[in-house]
Specification:
Largest sheet: 9 strands, mixed
Radius of gyration: 19 Å
Strand content: 15-25%
Distance between the termini: 32 Å
Organism: Hemiselmis tepida
Structural class: alpha/beta
Helix content: 25-40%
Protein name: Heterokaryon incompatibility domain-containing protein
Length: about 300
Amino acid sequence: GGHESSAHATAAGEEKGDDPTGTDEGGGVAEPEPGLSGAAAFPLNPKKCYFPMYLVPGNVVAKLSRLPHHEEALRQGYLLEVDRVEEGMYSNKRIWVKHKGRGADGKKMPSREISDTMVYFFSHRWMTPNLDPSLAHPDDEANTKLRGIKSILSPKKYMWIDFMCIPQRDPPSQLRAIQSLPFYVHASARFTALVSGEGGKEEYLQRAWCQAELIASKIPLRMPRWHPAWLHTRGMFRDISSGSGLGKEARLEPIRLGHIRDVSTCRLTDPRDFEKLRPLIEFAARELGEMAAWDASPDRDKTRVFGR
């Protein structure tokens, strides 16, 4: 899981000139809580985001020679901004992506719709972590991870990946993006943990940032006819090592609730990052605990809204 050496998010969540608003499902604006600072000003909610969700088109990824950080990706025009997310049929979501250009009449073009099934959320262990943000990178010098992503992502699909989609040089904005992780995850139907080789899965599971993203993917959405069994099959491990001889299907393994670890025992390049993760971990523990208690109740009614 990324952000391994990115700028440190401090309590200065509302620096002068920094717009703290975000969007929620349906295109509304998620305002910070008044009178609060830091993470407390941006309470976690899978249906709200406080920093825009950005996606990288597959046809852009195909042309990359190296994964760029978020600020560089913005400058180069690689990112598409999500306008809004709405519930679709069944468990799918409808995502509207903003058009960058304008029409022949000079007016802004309407957002175009894609399905969440077209979006990969790539969770991964940074291969070149460093306390210096300018030296840290999620890939190795051989671009092993980028090659693996290209083998998965077709030109017509989209990806969310922390290094390109979360601010790496702006602590207040990064804080808001971290508080938006549940929203980003639940707007992406294809949660994919990138691992490399035989020990790759265990290395992934031992990283605190990876666990945070995995846990975010397991937070239950409050919706009618909730069926907790869905929670146990959401997400896949994907082996991107080269020369393993594995076929496409053999590289896949489901991510289950049993893969969640005690984050306080997991590794961090910078121990201070645990305070960034604490709100997400505590929120997920409450939500999962409530869901488990409800699911274990002998007189539960699965036609009512979970937890309400």
